Give the backbone structure.
Amino acid sequence: MNMSDIVMSIPNKTNLESEEVLKLLREIEQTSETTQRELSSRLGISLGKINFLLNALIDKGHIKVDNFKKSDNKSAYLYYLTPKGIEEKARITYRFLRIKLREYDELEHEIRRLKHEVSEIQFPRDIRD
């Protein structure tokens, strides 16, 4: 493993354009009254990472948070997207879609290549089945 492999495997804690951020923004848009623990559970993201992402998004002005005074659960808050957050979610969604479409095209190309290679190989009959 070379140094670039190691660097690529270390998560970028400051990357606010990740799939996790998009999932979090979507969830907040759909369910504003929640706890960080509930967000963590629903999204499959660690509680510490949820806390980090929420604080970073709050600092950037993408999310606003208020205490939910009428809640029986005193750790529940109201999280909602600000206009700036709605714009950021749209931007991240567009960028993520472009990435996924490129990955899809590359995967489609790889599948065609593999099918072609397999069709040219003379396998004994019992291996193909």
